[in-house]
TrEMBL record:
Pathway where it operates: Amino-acid biosynthesis; L-histidine biosynthesis; L-histidine from 5-phospho-alpha-D-ribose 1-diphosphate: step 8/9
Protein name: Histidinol-phosphatase
Origin organism lineage: Bacteria, Bacillati, Bacillota, Clostridia, Eubacteriales
Molecular functions per Gene Ontology: histidinol-phosphatase activity
Keyword Hydrolase: yes
Amino acid sequence: MWFDQHVHMEHGPYTPLEYSREWLEQFLDIGRSRQVTGLGIVEHGYRFTESAGLLPGDWAARRCLYPLRGYTKFLDEVRHQYPIAVGLEMDYVPASEEGIRAYLNHYSWDFILGSVHFIDDFGLDVGEMRDEYTRRDPEDIWSAYYQYSIKAAQSGLFQVITHPDLPKIYGFPKPPDSVLVPWYHQFVEALGDNHVALEINTAGLRRPVKEIYPHPRLLLEAARAHLPVTLASDAHEPENVGRFFDEARNLALECGIEAITAFTARGVQTISLR
Ligand SMILES: [Zn+2]
Ligand SMILES: [Zn+2]
C-alpha cells in the first residue's frame, strides 16, 4: 500500500469554483489499481487571488485568478469522505516569507508542500523560460536553488520540500559533484534540524530528464541522516497517480531508505518499503 503525497486536480473538467467529486474519484480509482490507498491533494498556491504579489514576475501574476474559497469549499465537502489529506503546494520565495505565512493561515491544511520553482522571476519548470538555462551559469542556478531550499526548510512553513533537484528537469548540464554534493549535505542538514521531510517525486520520469527527483546522491545523504521521506507522483491527471512507484521504491531501498512517511488526515504514518 502507498500514500501518494502530491496530486493536483487542476487540469480537470471543473471551473475553479466548482470542483468535481467525479474527477477526484478518478484519481482514487487509478490509485487503488496501483496499491495507492490515500492521496495528498494539493493545488499550486499561485493559482489563487489571495497569493497576489507573493511570487516574482509576470508569469505568476497572470495566474492568481481564482478565490481560494472555491478550492477550500470543495475540500470542506470531501475531506472527511475520501481517503485524502488536503494541502497546498506553495512556492517558497525568501522575500515573501511573512506574506506566505499569512496566506497559508487562510485554511486548516493537513500538510503544506514547499517548492522552489522560481529563482527571481526565472521559473525553473516553466516551458516558455527553458532557454534561460542556456543564458545562466549552471552553478549560479543550482547554488541559488539550494540556498532557497535551505531557507524553505528553515522557514517552518512546510512539512515537505518537493522535487528537490528540480533544475535538472530539462537535462541541461549540471555543475560538477564537487559543487552539488556540499549543497546536498547542507540541505539535508537543514531538513533534519527543522524536522522537514524530503520528497521522492516520480514526475521527473515524465520530463525530458527521465530521472526520479532527487538524484541518488541526495537520497544517500537523506538516508544517512534518517530524514523522513515522502513518495509523490505529482500527478496532474488521474493516469499518473502512483505511476513509477515501484521504481521509486527500488531506488529508495538502494539508497538505504527503508520506509516512507505519509502526512495523512489522521497524522503522520510510516509505510515500510520491505
Ligand atoms: Zn512543483
Ligand atoms: Zn506539484
